[in-house]
Write a structure and sequence with these properties.
The chain is built from four helices and twelve strands. The strands form four sheets. Strands 3-5-7-8-9-10 form a six-stranded mixed β-sheet. The protein starts with about 20 loop residues before the first helix and ends with a helix.
């Protein structure tokens, strides 16, 4: 028995090259879905966002923008080039202001990123908790936040990590439930309670 071709379907999945995709491919392949990432030479497509994911990104981006000193900028969902085979898209990042070179900018280099933030989604949990933090650390990004939920009421929780430059791995420096207070990459004091999220 052979499968019948689907009639009326004109989309074709891209066929990867033998050695995988590169950053150049990510930015030149036509018709890739929005927010496509490159991890280990493979294209990663994201599922539709849940409301928690979207509003948490808004809450953090707005708070970071209000707190950031002039030499730093907060951005949401921008590609960060780690190396030629890895270009993830953190949900939020803080970059050096001089790296924001114009409105046509599509990516940042890892050396310009001071903080990468991932909001955990069910479809990307392993990537958000394991794969991406290891790659951000190896690329030398000094700070990483992992955002999820906790408790029966599923309230927001932010885990704050700092890079240990000796072993190129992140060390947990704090777990924040209702208020996020940290001094890196700059002084931050944000209401991250469920009420703050619900108010958006």
């Amino acid at each position: 028995m052979t499968a019948e071709p689907i009639t009326g379907c004109s989309s074709r999945w891209p066929v990867p090259p033998q050695d995988g995709y590169t950053v150049d491919d990510l930015f030149t392949l036509p018709d890739l879905p929005p927010h496509t990432e490159l991890l280990d030479g493979s294209l990663v497509f994201v599922s539709p966002q849940r409301d928690f994911h979207s509003t948490m990104i808004d809450l953090l981006t707005t708070g970071l923008r209000h707190s950031a000193p002039p030499e730093m900028k907060a951005r949401r969902e921008m590609t960060v080039v780690l190396d030629r085979r890895n270009a993830p898209e953190p949900d939020v990042c803080v970059v050096r202001a001089e790296a924001v070179t114009g409105r046509e900018l599509t990516r940042f280099e890892a050396a310009d990123v001071l903080l990468a933030v991932e909001v955990v989604s069910p479809d990307s949990e392993a990537r958000d908790r394991d794969t991406k933090p290891q790659k951000y650390a190896a690329a030398g990004i000094p700070n990483f936040w992992l955002v999820g939920t906790a408790g029966s009421d599923r309230h927001p929780v932010v885990r704050v990590y700092e890079l240990d430059p000796v072993n190129k791995a992140y060390a947990l420096t704090g777990i924040h439930h209702d208020r996020l207070k940290t001094g890196v990459p700059f002084s931050v004091d944000l209401d991250i309670s469920a009420e703050a999220l619900d108010a958006l």
